């Protein structure tokens, strides 16, 4: 059933991409007045749209998993404190579920399964781990289940150690990104300012010396459409490289 749904969604995405390709072809044809080049623009545009539609759900799942993982250390620290205070397990779950973020939403799903579907605490927590594509989350959930099964009063320190380990990992990622941020900034300046200036110089010199064959419409498309798209792609790349816990 999953394979059938995936194939159906792929066919729908291909059809949408083909429609976008047709639109890009017609739009480029109006400006460029070159059938083959316009067709190339349409094909590239269609493939680009298809890639976005296919990658977007995967990127959304990965981003959501990264958000939950980034919020996990503080949640584990609070859970460890409440475990050491001797609070009941369901009460601890309820306190985490009150958080107005992604991890709070996941714990609300856990409580909903326990109350409405009469699932066990272990099953609900394991479903939580299965939903999130993160090894750190699965590791924390496995420890959480183990503490619940074996008696949780002594498990607070284990959760606290795991929380400190995850926070140390985040600090390391933050320092690493800070070192790369200068390079990313220089890269963006080069792409957004230096490359367009060089292109304009090339067009001026080329039209005078090299008999450059670019038309005014083609130059207009490159400056108004291509360069902004490249700038947006560079910004998106920098955002992808930014640790999720630094994006908020």
Quick description:
The chain has helices at residues 2-32, 35-84, 89-97, 102-116, 121-131, 135-150, 156-210, 216-241.
- SS field, number of helical segments: 8
Question: Helical proportion?
Answer: over 70%
Supply Rg. Answer: 26 Å
* Strand-residue proportion: under 5%
Largest sheet: none
Which structural class should the secondary elements be placed in?
Answer: mainly alpha
- The averaged pLDDT comes out at 84
Order of helices and strands: HHHHHHHH
Low-pLDDT stretches: none
Shape: elongated
Work out the number of β strands: 0
Keywords: Membrane, Transmembrane, Transmembrane helix
Transmembrane segments: 14-31, 37-56, 181-210, 216-238
Q: Can you tag this structure with a few keywords?
A:
248 residues; mainly alpha; 8 helices; elongated; transmembrane; transmembrane helix; membrane
Description of the molecule:
- This protein is an all-alpha fold and 248 residues long.
- The chain has a domain at 66-169.
- The chain has helices at residues 2-32, 35-84, 89-97, 102-116, 121-131, 135-150, 156-210, 216-241.
- Helix 3 (89-97) packs across helix 4 (102-116), helix 4 packs antiparallel against helix 5 and helix 5 (121-131) packs antiparallel against helix 6.
- It is elongated and about 80 Å long.
- The mean pLDDT is 84.
- Keywords: Membrane, Transmembrane, Transmembrane helix.
- The chain crosses the membrane at residues 14-31, 37-56, 181-210, 216-238.
- One of its GO terms (cellular component) is plasma membrane.
